[in-house]
Amino acid sequence: MNAATMNHAQHAAHTIGGKLVGVTDLTMRFGGLTALDQLNMQINEGEVLGLLGPNGSGKTTFFNVLTGLYKATSGSIIYKGQEVIGQTPQEIYRSGVARTFQRSRLSLPLTVFDNIVIGDYQHMNHGLFFNLFQRKAFRAEYDSYVSKVEALLNIFSPPLVARMFEPVGTFTMIDRRRIEVCRALLSQPRLLLLDEPSAGMTHDETEALMDDILQVRGKLENLTIVLIEHEMNVIERITDRCIVFNYGKKIAEGTYAEITADPNVQTAYLGEAE
Ligand SMILES: Nc1ncnc2c1ncn2[C@@H]1O[C@H](COP(=O)(O)OP(=O)(O)OP(=O)(O)O)[C@@H](O)[C@H]1O
């Protein structure tokens, strides 16, 4: 069976464990606007969790708070036993939380290799002394990055390995998305946050990218994935569990089948019946 014919259940040689992230009464206000409103939820070890909700319901804000870009107004996020709120984005990244963004953050003139390695800037030894006077060590570090990037690209799309030193601007949208996911994976995160990976792609491209993400999940045993996605067929295919937001609150959680049957979810998406 190849990846394209596998559905989510057939991938489930994967164990879902206890709580990796616990969110308690999380609130994020922007002036008078409450983007997250006393949110309570948890993310389990090893799961693929889908985050759904109408536009503006707080999904990206949740990622931004969880990765330290925004400081929550109040509440708590415990990740691996430690409070996240108050930590810098660098500290959170180093503790194993990586993400992709809704809009591409690749530098088009730079090569695939450079774009992926930039993501791991925090882990690199880039002091001038090291680069100028420790040439051997510098070379060894560089070579180890080349091997790591090759290995990651191989998981996603082996043809990308041969083009690793070409500028990203010459690649298709789906390859750029693959490159962005590889960049997020370079640090070997425990928790990978994907913000609408299907945005701007065709149906077939989205299917192919989801196959790749499932393959990666199969190969990286301890990886937990949270995925913001509007494409319901993507959610159905790759998530173990879903949480639905509306106005910054969790209004439903469960399997895809459960949340789509939930009247609260239907009302949130379709509006109240007159
Ligand atoms: N930096 C900010 N400053 C002010 N308001 C913000 C900021 N970031 C988000 N918001 C507001 O917070 C609310 C939640 O936005 P958020 O982007 O989290 O929603 P979302 O569920 O990710 O939506 P979408 O599905 O459209 O991406 C929106 O009303 C948005 O305008």
UniProtKB/TrEMBL annotation:
Domain called ABC transporter: residue spans: 21-272
Keywords associated with the record: ATP-binding, Cell membrane, Membrane, Nucleotide-binding, Transport
Keyword Kinase: no
InterPro entries: AAA+_ATPase, ABC_AA/LPS_Transport, ABC_transporter-like_ATP-bd, BCA_ABC_TP_C, P-loop_NTPase
Residues making up the signal peptide according to the UniProt record: none
SUPFAM superfamilies in the cross-refs: P-loop containing nucleoside triphosphate hydrolases
Gene Ontology terms for molecular function: ATP binding
Tree of life domain: Bacteria
UniProt cross-references to Pfam families, sorted A to Z: ABC_tran, BCA_ABC_TP_C
Organism of origin: Herminiimonas glaciei
Identification of the protein by name: ABC transporter ATP-binding protein
